[in-house]
Amino acid sequence: MGQDYNETSDMLRALDVSMPTATSSNAAKLPEFKIQFHPRSNQPLIYQSYEEFRVRSEKSPSPVDKTPWSPFRTLGDFEFAEIALASLLNQQQVNALLNLFARVTQGAVQVTLKNDAELRKVCDAAAMELTPFSRVEVKVPYKKEECTFEAHIRPLWEWALDILENPFLGLHFTWDAQRLYRHDGVEYEHFYDEPWTGDYWWDIQSSLPDIKNAMLFGLILYADKSNLSSFGTAKSYPVVVCCANLLVEIRNSNVIGGGTVVGWLPIVPEDAEEEGKLGYTTLKCVIWHESFKKLLLEIEQYSKTGYVHTSSHDNITRWLSLSLMMLSADFEEISMMALTRGRGGKHPCPVCLVLSELLHDLSRTFEPRTHAQGIDVLCVYDRSNFDRLHYGHGFWGKHVFGDLKVIVKALGRQIETNVEKYVASFPRWQNLAHFNQVIHVTFSDGNKLADISKDYTKCVVKSNIDGLRTDWNFLKVHLWKHIVRDICLKGAARNYSTRPNESMHKPIRDAYEHRSNGRDVPAQVLRVDHQVLATKLLRLRVDHLKKSVSGESDPEVDAVSEHTSVDHIKLGAHVVVTQTLKDLEENGQPDMAFHWFRQRFCEFLNDALPAYGYQVKSWISLPADFTVKEYRYLLVNYESTVTWNQCTDRLRCNPSFFGVPRYDCALIQYTETETAFVRLICMFSCVIPDIGNMEFILAQPFTTRIGPAHTIDRDLRLKRVKTVPRAASIFIPLCLIIRGAVLAPDTEHDDEFFVVEQLDSDMFLRTQAM
User: Fold this and answer.
1) Which of 14, 240, 530, 620 stands the most exposed, by the fewest C-beta atoms within 10 Å?
2) Coil, strand, or helix at residue 702?
C-alpha cells in the first residue's frame, strides 16, 4: 500500500529531526524557544526565553480621534445605540427609554435622539463607513425554465480592505510564515499554533513571486444553514469570514477583526414533488455554487494578480497574494463545497478517496483528493478540516450518547435514577455546563475514542440488549484519520473550529425575532448586523479615547489588549466577621478536619516554614484569640502547558454557594518533583510574628490508590485517587497551588474519586505526567 505526503511519514515534520541535539552540559543554557522566519522575510533566527516569548511591544495604534463616536452627535447617543442594538430592543422599548431620557435634565452624558426612526437613521449613517450588503440575482435554468434566487453579498475584497485599513488592527497582523520550536531539555521540538506556523503558509510564501514584501493574506470562510423560527419555516444561510493573519484571540472574538457575516445564500425551497430527484438535488448545488461564486469574484481576480497595499500602520507597501486558507463547516456544507455527493457517495470523505464501506478502518491510508480531480483555481479538499465541534463532540452527542441511554434503560429504572443523581451531583466548574437530568461527558482525545469504539463493538456483539449500534462505519469515525494532517498544515484545531462561528447564529435569530416583520427577512436582519458591526468599530475608538485620557487600559473593553502579568493567586470574598483560631475550630465542629486546629497549625508553622525559606528564630506559639481572616473565593493564574499563555481558574470554598455547599479541588506542588490533588476545606490569612502576613489553606489530600488498578479503570483509562481521613487534613501555603481540578466521586467507594482529565488540554497533559 502506497504512502502519501498528507497522511504518513511527512507528518513527522512535527519533529525537526535535523536539529542538533543538545548535550547535557549545555542544554540548560539554551533558550526555551526558537523562531525561524521564512527566508524571504530577511529576518534573523531568534532565540527567546520564557519571559520574552510572545511578549509584544505596546504601541499606540493610531492618533487619537477626539470625536470617535461620529456620526453620532454625542458619546451618549452612541452608547445608547450600542445598548439598543446589543439588546435587540423593540420599537416600544426604544421609545419608552427615549421618553425617559428626555426627562433627564442632568447627567454625565447627553442623549439627543428623539425616536426610533432617528436611531435607525444615525445607525445607518455610522454603518456607511463599512462595506454594505448588496442584493444579487442568481439565475439557473431548470426544466427549460429560468429559476431566479436572491443572494445578499458583502464583497469579500471590500471587507478585506476594511480590515487592512483599520488602524487598531494594523499592529496585530502577522505576515511571515514561522516555525516554532520549544527546547525539551535535549533538543528543539517543532510545534504548531497559529495558521502562519503551519506548513501551508510556509509553502505558499515559498511559491510567491520574487517581489519585495510579497506576503500572503489568508481568509477563513464558514457557512452553515440554520433555522430562524422554531417551526423551521424561516431559515438563514450566513457566510462568515475572518482573517488568518490576525491572532486567534482577535480572530475568534466578537469584536472588530473577528468573524464577520459577508453573505446570505439563497435556500432552495422544499418541494414534495421534486424532493429527492437528481435534477432537483443538482439545482440546489448549482444555486449554492453560483451564489458563492459572486461572493468570490474580486478575490478570484486578486488571487491571480496580487494587490499592492500600503499599510497606514507602518507605511510599508506589500504585494498581497490572497488565499482561501481554510473552510470551516460541518459535513453537509463541506460536501456542498467539495461536491463529494455527501453520505450517499461511494467516496464520502471530503479529504481522501476512502470507500464508504471502509470508513471505520483507521489503520488504512487512502489517496487524497486533489484539484486535478476538480477545478484548477482552488483545491477545496486541502481546505477542508477536522472540526472538533461536529466530529468530536458531535460524535459523542449524536452517536455514543444515544447508545449509552439504550444501555442505561435496559439496566432498569433504578439504574436510570442513579445515573441522573450522579450527573446532578457532578462537581460544578467554570465554563462547564451543569445538568440535572442528562449525562455529561467531555471527551476530545482521538486515540481514546478509537480504542473505546473497538472495545464497545465487541461488548455489543455479545450483548443481549436490543437497539445498540454495531455498525460504526460512518464519516465521523473516519475523519479522525486526518486530524494530524490538518494540524501540521494549518496549525492548531482552534484555527478552523466552527465553534466561534456557530455562536453567530443566535444574534441573527434574535434580529429576526425582534427587529424584522417576517418579510424580506435577509435585508432586515443584515441591516441590523451591519449596524452592530458599525457600533463595534465606534466602540474601539471610544475606548481608545478613554484610555488616552485616563492613561489606563480596561481589559474588559480593550479588543486588542496585550498579555499582562498578574499575581499568581488572589484570595477574595472574605468573611466580614472577625474570627480567631478558636472560632475556626469551634465553628468547624464536628468536622474532624478542624480537630485540634490551633495546635496543628502551630506545629505546621514551626516545622514547615524553614523548609519554605523562612527563618523561625523562636518557637511560634499562637494564642486561642489569635486573629485570622477567612476567605471563600480563590483566583489562580497559571501558565498553560499547551499554549504557554496565562489561564485562570476560580475556586470556591464556601459552605453555602448559592444555597449549596461547594468545596473545590486543586492541584498542588507537593514536593519539588511531585504534585498531588487536594480538596479545599478552609482558606485564611494571618500575620505571623516576626514574618508577616501569610496565606494558608486547610486541605484534604488525595493519594494514589494502592494496589492493582480495577479492570474497568484500565479499560477506560480512568485515573483514580483516594482521600485521606478528614482528621489527617493538612495545612498548605497558598503559593503551592498550581491550578484548580475536578474530581468526580465513585458511587461505590465513598473515599475514592476519578480525576476529570478531559477538563481541558492542560489538565490532560499534567495528569499524563503524574
Assistant:
1) 14
2) strand
* Average confidence (pLDDT) over 407-434: 72
In this predicted structure, what is the pLDDT of residue 176? 92
pTM over 0.90: no
- Quote the CA–CA distance of 760 and 762 in Å, as a whole number: 6
- Write down the H helix ranges in 551-621: 581-587, 597-608
Start-to-end CA span in the chain (Å)? 39
Q: Kindly tell me the number of DSSP H helices and DSSP E strands found in the chain.
A: 23, 26
The Cβ of residue 492 has, within 10 Å, a number of other Cβ atoms equal to: 20
Domain coordinates in residue numbering, the chain? 75-127, 391-470, 569-768
In terms of Cβ atoms closer than 10 Å to its own Cβ (0-12, 13-18, 19+), residue 285 is middle
Q: Report the DSSP pairing between strands 214-223 and 317-328.
A: parallel
Higher pLDDT, 722 or 554: 722
Backbone angles phi, psi at 389, to 5 degrees: -65, -45
User: Which residues, in sequence order, are bridge partners of residue 309?
Assistant: 318
| Spatial CA neighbour of 752 closest among 727, 726, 719 | 719
Backbone phi, psi, residue 614, to 5°: -95, 140
Give residue 559's pLDDT. Answer: 36
Rg (CA), the chain: 30
C-alpha 588, offset from chain centre? 40
Distance CA 689, CA 683 (A): 19
| The residue to which cell 437530568 is assigned | 437
Distance from C-alpha of 36 to C-alpha of 45, rounded to nearest angstrom: 5
Residue carrying C-alpha cell 510579497: 214
Q: How far is residue 375's CA from residue 770's CA, in Å, rounded to a whole number? A: 50
User: Once rounded to an integer, what is the mean pLDDT over residues 706-713?
Assistant: 71
Instruction: Quote the strand ranges of 257-408, DSSP E.
Output: 260-264, 307-310, 317-328
Q: Is 674 exposed, middle or buried (0-12, 13-18, 19+ CB in 10 A)?
A: exposed
Asked if residues 614 and 691 have their Cβ atoms less than 8 Å apart, the reply is yes
Largest CA distance in the chain: 100
DSSP string, 379-425: -HHHHB---IIIIIIHHIIIIIHHHHHHHHHHT-HHHHHHHHHHHHT
CA distance 635 to 657: 16
